[in-house]
Amino acid sequence: MDARPISILERGLAAVGDLLAAEGVEVGIIVAGGTALNLLGIVQRTTDDVDVLAILRDRAGSDGVTLAPPDPLPEPLQRAIARVARDFQLPEDWMNTVVGLQWQTGLPLGLERRLRWRRYGGLRVGLVARYDLIFLKLYAAADSGGPSSVHFQDLLALRPTERELQAAAAWVREQDPTPEFSTIVEQVMTHARERVG
Length: 197
Description:
The chain is of the alpha/beta class.
């Protein structure tokens, strides 16, 4: 998949929201990865997709946020994504749930309370907050090539403190408790400390 300027993906989100609103439907998604980093103003780089980590579930009579695994995405959202892909000449999987596999081992505790919300018509977008992105990016960097990966560069852009790195590392080690992976996590953290200062 080719990398796209964030403005194209944000226009795609707005178009999806307009299509949902035209149907009288509201859908909430939680977005992680490069799109979240860009929309939060942490990085300015191209990204190739919108990573949907979760969907929002309504809780009757509650102001709280309930998240659920994103698969399958609601039908109206799937239709809107497909139409926007066609209209904007984006790949079919420009908005996808691959990162949703994280539900198998768990999300950082309290992630749902720290979301940063945007609204695009009928589409509510919860952006994973900086603190939780540190956890997810440390995990991704350790799992995919270490310091040479885009995930490591994103981790550096998040400028984690030592306390944040330690908290993230504890969570990451829960995702894969093998000694080999723990060693990789420590190596990534060492490189991050050297670069962040």
